Amino acid sequence: MESDGPHGHTGKPQRPPSRHDPVPIGPHPASTDNATDLARDLEARHPGWVILWRHWARRYWAFPTWLPNTPGPIEARNLQDLLTQINDLEFQHSP
Question: Residue 28: beta bridge partners?
């Protein structure tokens, strides 16, 4: 089987994900690999954040790297809740 390479199925270069692209969100990821991929995708859309899937807790964690004296990570059971918290924190600390 041939690899699709860096251009995907169409042969055209793929653009990096944008924070405005829809994020596939559900109550719980189907698998740990899927949850890790979703966390990685959300992190790519939100520069300045480190986003992790905590398998043992079945929760997402997000750390803002651009805020000094951050009180701690934000966490949520699903990506929609995490995304809401990320947007709220970014809004509170926007110039």
Answer: none
Distances (CA, A) of 84 to 2, 13, 31, 56: 40, 30, 22, 23
Cβ 23 vs Cβ 79: under 8 Å: yes
Which ranges of 1-95 does DSSP label H, i.e. alpha helix? Answer: 32-45, 79-92
Give me the pLDDT at residue 95, please: 65
**Residue 49 CB coordination number (10 Å):** 19
pTM equals 0.63
What residues contact 43, with CB distance under 8 A and at least 6 apart?
Answer: 49, 50, 51
- Angle at CA of residue 24, ends 2 and 75, nearest 5°: 120
73 alpha carbon, distance to own chain's centre = 14
Give the integer Cα–Cα distance in Å for 93 and 35. Answer: 28
Can you give the C-alpha Rg of the chain in angstroms? 15
